[in-house]
């Protein structure tokens, strides 16, 4: 597995982010609003943030592809597409890789904070 895709070794497996925490983290990392990620917009910024959120939701949560798709207002085949294309996009684009790493860290941090509040 490429280094850009390795899970953060400092995040306990028991503390998993919710999909909405991953979406919020993607919004911060990609610098766009939640409404843009959840919209039908097809511009590159919204699409990459949305694909990153789907990719990380598949990686970081135990949810099925249809469940992830429903939470992001998408079909499960869109989640499959994101899961297939993101590894290559990350490998080819260092800036995208950095944004995905930041999204992963922020989502894990949000989940950790939530776990301490519980």
Question: How would you describe what is shown here?
Answer:
The protein has 118 residues and is mainly alpha-helical. The chain has a single domain, classed as Chromosomal Replication Initiator Protein Dnaa, Chain: A. 69% of the residues lie in helices and 0% in strands. The protein is built from six helices and no strands. Helix 1 runs antiparallel to helix 3, helix 3 crosses helix 5 and helix 5 packs across helix 6. The longest helix is centred in the last third of the chain and has 24 residues. It is globular. The termini are far apart.
Short description:
The protein has 118 residues and is mainly α. Helices cover 69% and strands 0% of the residues. The protein has a single domain (14-112), classed as Orthogonal Bundle (Chromosomal Replication Initiator Protein Dnaa, Chain: A), CATH 1.10.1750.
By DSSP (H or I, 4+ residues per run), the number of helices equals 6
How many domains? The number is 1
Q: Could you list the spans in which at least 5 consecutive residues all have pLDDT below 50? A: 1-5
Give the SSE order as H and E letters. HHHHHH
């Amino acid at each position: 597995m490429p280094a850009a895709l390795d899970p953060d070794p400092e995040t306990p497996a028991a503390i998993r982010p919710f999909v909405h925490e991953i979406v919020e983290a993607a919004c911060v990392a990609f610098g766009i609003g939640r409404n843009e990620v959840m919209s039908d917009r097809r511009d590159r910024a919204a699409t990459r943030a949305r694909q990153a959120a789907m990719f990380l939701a598949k990686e970081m949560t135990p949810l099925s592809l249809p469940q992830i798709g429903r939470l992001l207002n998408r079909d499960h085949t869109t989640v499959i597409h994101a899961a297939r294309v993101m590894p290559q996009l990350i490998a080819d684009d260092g800036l995208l890789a950095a944004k995905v790493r930041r999204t992963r860290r922020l989502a894990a941090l949000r989940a950790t904070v939530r776990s301490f509040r519980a």
